[in-house]
Each structure stands twice: as C-alpha cells, then as structure tokens.
Amino acid sequence: xxxLIPQSFIDDLLARADIVDVVxxxxxxxxxxxxxxxxxxxxxxxxxxxxxxxxxxxxxxFGCGKGGNAIGxxxxxxxxxxxxxxxxxxxxxGLEVPREESPRxxxxxxxxxxLFDVLQNASxxxxxxxxxxxxxxxxxxxxKGRGLSGEIARDFKLGFAPPGWQNxxxxxxxxxxxxxxxxxxGLLIExxxxxxxxxxxxxxxxxxxxxxxxxxRVIAFGGRVIGDDKPKYLNSPETPVFHKAEELYGLYExxxxxxxxxxxxxxxxxxxxxxxxxxxxxxxxxxLGTATSTSHLKKLFKLxxxxxxxxxxxxxxxxxxxxALQQAIPLMEDxxxxxxxxxxxxxxxxxxxxxxxxxxxxxxxxxxxxxxxxFFENLCSQVDMDSLEGRAKLGTLAMPLIKQFPDGLxxxxxxxxxxxxxxxxxxxxxxxxxxxxxxxxxHPYAPTKQAEPVEPVKTETAxxxxxxxxxxxxxxxxxxxxxxxxxxxxxxxxxxxxxSIKQLEGQAVDLLFEVIKLARNAPTSSTHELLASIYGxxxxxxxxxxxxxxxxxxVAGVEKEFKEIVQYLTxxxxxxxxxxxxxxxxxxKLSAKDRSNVAKT
Length: 601
Description:
This protein is of the alpha+beta class and 601 residues long. Helix 17 packs antiparallel against helix 18 and helix 20 (467-487) packs antiparallel against helix 24 (558-589). It has 5 domains: 7-92, Zinc finger, CHC2-typedomain (DNA Primase, Chain A, Alpha-Beta Complex); 103-235, DNA primase, catalytic core, N-terminal domain (DNA primase DNAg catalytic core, N-terminal domain); 252-359, Dna Topoisomerase Vi A Subunit, Chain: A, domain 2, CATH 3.40.1360.10; 382-433, DnaG, RNA polymerase domain, helical bundle (Pheromone ER-1, Up-down Bundle); 460-595, DNAb Helicase, Chain A, CATH 1.10.860.10. The protein is built from 25 helices and 16 strands.
C-alpha cells in the first residue's frame, strides 16, 4: 500500500511533460496546422482520426472517443492504473515520485514489501525445483501430456513444490523475520498440535502457478497436486497483498502478450488459461476459486470493452453464467459488451481447443451469445410464454433486473424487447413497476466528429413558456456554461451562481454544478490541470469530450458570456419555481376527481 502522490508533483509532471513527445514516442505523428495527427493506437483505422493538441496538452480520437492528457495516454497505451502511469511518465523524465505517508502507512508498505520479496523468492525456488529436483520428470511429463511447451511454462513461471514438509522453510526461513514473512505470506502453516512439524510448507508435491498482480508482482500461488491427494487445487490464503475476490489469474500475462487488448475471456481454471495461451489465445483469465465478482468486472472493463464468460453447457454452468450476468448488469454502460460461451457437455476450454483447434475456438468466442440474448432466454425458460399468466410473470421477473441497468441505449432496447415479448407497452410497464415512462434520451456529451456549437442564450425571448421547453433550453445553456468554465476555470469565483438553478434539473445541470465545485476547489488550475485531476472518472470522460469541441467564444468574451448564461439560468429557475407554485395553488382548489385527472396528464 503506497502513500498518496502529492497533487503538486502531478501538476508539475504535467507541466514538464510535452504531450507531443509522450505520444510521439509511441505513435507516428505528423503536423497538421497547429496540431498533430496520426493513426489511433486504440482502434484499427486506415485514415487518421487521432489528434494531439499541444496548446491544450490533450489528445483525442474522433473515431473511438479516447482522450486525455499525458498521464491518461500512458494509462491507456500501457494498460496500467493511474499511479503506475505517473510513475512510468516520471521515470521516463528521470524524476522520482514522492509519496505522502503516515507512520502507519509507511509501516504497512514495508510489511507488504517484505511479503512481495518472500513470495518472489518462493517463486524462484519453485521454478528452480522444476529444473533440478530429482522428481521433476513427473511434473514435466504431466505438463507435456497436457500439450504445454517449455516456452509457455517459462512465460507463466510454472514451478514445482517438491514432496517434503519443510523445503521452503529450510530454504527461505533461516531467520525469525524470514519465517514470519513466510507465515504471513501463506507459504507456511503453523500447527502447534503437530508435535513433529509444528511449522510446515503449505504446498507439497504440487505444480505451482504463481499469481501475479497487474504490476507483475507475485502475490500468491495456486498448486495442483501431482498424485491423488486432496484437494486437487490449493490456493494461498488471504493475506495483506492477496484478496482473491479481486484478483484474476493470467491478467498480467495477457497484458504483457497483447499490447492492446480488445476482449477478455473468463474461464474457470489455471490450466484453461495456460492451455489457451499455448494455442495462441492470449486474452484469457480465471477467477481464483470464487465466482466472478463486480470487482473483477470493474477491473476488466477498465481495460477492454468486451468480456466473454466461458462455461460448461450443463445446468451448473448455466446457473454460474446467470450469476455472472447479474454481476455484470449494473456495469453495462453503452459501449460495453458481455457475452456467454457455453461449451459442449464434458468439455472444458483446454480439451475443446485441442479438439477443434485454435481457429474454430476463436470463431466460437466471436459467436458467443450476447447478454440480452441470454437474459431473455433464461427468464423465458422459467415461464409459460403461451399463456397470459406466463407473460405477466416474465415482466415480474425481468423488470427488477432491468432497473439495475445503467441509463442508456442497451437498457432501452431491453425494455423494448420485454414489451414485445409481453405485449405490454413500455409506458404501461413503467407505471406498473416504477420508473420514468419516457424513453432514454441520447447522452448529451456523446463525441461528435463535427463541432456542434451551442448558441449562447442571452435574452428572455429565448425562454419558452412551457416547463419542458424551459428545461430543455436550460440543458443547452448549462453545457455551454461548462465549456466556458473549461476555457477559464477562474470565472466561477468572479460571478455569483445562484443555487436555485439546480431546480431546473437534468444531467447538464448536475454536470455544471460538479464542474463549478471542481473549479472552486482548485481556483488556480489551468484547463489541463483541472481535467487531469479527474481523469479516468465518468465526469472526466464527459468533460474531455465536451472540451474538445470547437470553441466559438473568443477568450476575451468568456467571462461576459458566462455571466449572461448564469443570469438566463437564474431567471429560468425563478419562472420554474413560480409556475410550480401556481400549479400547486391551483391543485388545492380542484376537487379530488379533478386532481386525479390533472395527475394523469
């Protein structure tokens, strides 16, 4: 657990780093006017749509929507997390990254480092035993029998924990501190009731699979027994550096082998990952004795837009797939894909790829069923779709799950499909099960190839009399206001902004006040420093896309136009409040029947 990197260092790093140099080391760029362009490294294209803007110190791709600053580019290009990207960029510039640590945090970091060291030493020991131990042939013959080469064993750092109770203890536990580190890392077991061996090796007579984190550090092991001992597979216990519900076997190796991952295939076991890699399928991972969790999927969706789950085709496999689908639903933002590949009975990925070959297996991954397809297939199998009661039950089963999908096109399409299957209109479904009856609107910050400047709203005549029109006009004005703040963050401290504007409601209104808060907390930030502080977050992605649009306001006119928009929004909010007050008073004068009729309109 490392300490926090001071924001002042990050700001200084961004000030020193030239985005053109950072990108130019990895992408061939050519100057086009004041900017630079090239082929996007994040998706396949023949015509350059990737732009680097030295003036803003930002890059943006009009094809895939990727964008950010120098740190963000290193994150995306190298598939690493934010802190690691800072370290990578700093190292390339000969800078050491400082850390802000409390005494407790520093102590924990030192303890964790001791665990990393002993785990790496154990991995080296196991690999050495696979090469030199007298009983190594039993392991080598097993691996060869599974079709694995020496190169694959090397890439995955496979090893051998030989028979015996204290091999690791005698090799690596010569001092009290070393022995304690081995215990803390889960490599030794302490059992005072065992008089002969009160402390002994956890892994004995097993093929060893090092589990590495995204930085390549060994954090745990899995061990497969050679003989008939139980359990067949044994994993390290939870430790300060290993949390099995958050880690994925093979993810580090996949990132090393494939520079730009497009999809990840989730399988069940170590040997499945390795066997597929042996057959040139290098984008596979396995959970570590646990079901796929939301933490797993969040980690994967940061790296790839598509995750494919691979399960046996029997009832147990389909039950596991359904549990995985439920974990995926809250993360299914537009642009992400979750698919389901079911194997023939009796086959696992290892046996199937050897049986049908790499090309056929890859083809089957490409044809894996979509989430929506499996969603309705599973639910429809639980009801009688030929009866009214069955279709009603389908709605009861589906709607609580559909409400967990993020707002977006996928959610709307699934609602459309449910309406078709049940024969019930979408508005009726919403009224029955709760939620808005209006369709999902396009995301207000979707990237566009051509600028769509929003005309500044300057006079009362632009305000439509109806509440709906007023709110729609306000959304447009809020997006323009956000754009102006991005041009000059300091304007939020020069112009008073009435909180009553919030009652206009909507995504753009919420975004405006989030950006105002960000700019006030860092009043001296430049545009790129402001965006860097929220890079990789949902709001950060929205602002990068919005900021990239062509600016039609001269720099000298930013403050004046922002003031006019704030005045317009304040007036619109007051009209909204006045109209709501009048409506409330009118309703009080109506009969109960009339109030019911008004509520339905």
